Amino acid sequence: MMRICCAFQNVAMILYTDAQLAYIFAATCTTFNIYPMKLISYYNPTDEQDHLAMVHEENFYDLQDMDWRLPGNMQLFLYGGEEAFETALEYDQMLREGKSIRARPKLLSSVQLMAPVPQPTSCRDGYAFRQHVEAARRNRKVEMIPEFDQYPIFYFTNHNSIQGPGDIVCMPDHFQKLDFELEVAIVINRKGRNIRAEEADSYIAGYMIMNDMSARVLQMEEMKLNLGPAKGKDFSTVIGPWLVTPDELESFKVPCKEGHVGNNYNLDMKCWVNGKLVSSGNMGDMDWTFAEIIERASYGVDLLPGDVIGSGTVGTGCFLELNGTGKFNDPNYEEQWLQEGDMVEMEITGLGHLTNTIVKDESEFSIFSLKKEG
User: Fold this and answer.
1) Which of 160, 211, 199 is nearest to 32 (CA)?
2) Is residue 374 in a domain?
3) CA dihedral for 217, 135, 229, 75, sign (positive or negative)
4) By residue range, what is the domain housing residue 104?
5) 156 assigned to some structural domain
6) Measured between alpha carbons, how far is 296 from 294 in angstroms, rounded to an integer?
7) What is the pTM of this model?
8) Do 289 and 155 fall within a single domain?
9) Which one-letter DSSP state was computed for residue 256?
10) CA 85 to CA 70: how far, in whole Å?
């Protein structure tokens, strides 16, 4: 199997050859074959740019070292469409067959991994797991909202705060009920508009682990004004450690829920905080499929290569739900929230292991202190 890597760069400052630009415009193609690959991103300190690389076992191979025609970063690779994937797959096949290639192997452990898609064109997050929604509402002593079963919803989060493994830097106000959210995410592989659910899975380039970091006090304050999570969600969304193409998950495929359309997978989802297992769920419990979320998201608008879409939180997949359930069953239950220095590890079958550490920003600036008296 193949993995691809990429790291941060200022795309506007880079010049591309005609052959490379040809890949970019291929993204408007009407068909797209999915290949079994794993795609990751790494940072190159020599030129301070992101590089695309193919990973085999413990080594990686820079794609442009293999073939100068291949795009140099993940965004261009996604825009490259089927032609870019086919060219990369040829080199992957050569490596698996033990054939020599021009690029030299480098140890994967020697590089800084980043988000598989370091610069997504947008980031949406869904609300696909009924178990999570139902438990959260029960814990607040309100009935399950019937609209959940009528249509799949999502909100836009800050695509400029996407990050990969490593430190999550939080401001002082974020630590007031700081939380993780265990999710699955996808990235779109080609441009589409008004995509029907029956064909939407072909627009998925691959799957990733997603941690939708949440500052609950900020979130709950603002949502009283009915305008979404806003500052409570915009400071960090973690994806990684790599992007896994759908064919890699074929053996895990399971039927979607009755009355729904699209692919679904039996993938165990787990989260540890400081080595203690705190969350355990399964992607197969998604009620709304990614295909159905894509259908709604693309209604009247263009989806683009590099758009990231999260599933929403799996059941038991955050402290907000776990604390609520604990207090529902025992009024003396002691709440738990993320603290400075905590290590958050997430693992999803087939999608890898994602590790982050919570770090406090040096600034003492607080927007809570700016609140005016009501």
Assistant:
1) 199
2) no
3) positive
4) 3-114
5) yes
6) 5
7) 0.89
8) yes
9) P
10) 9
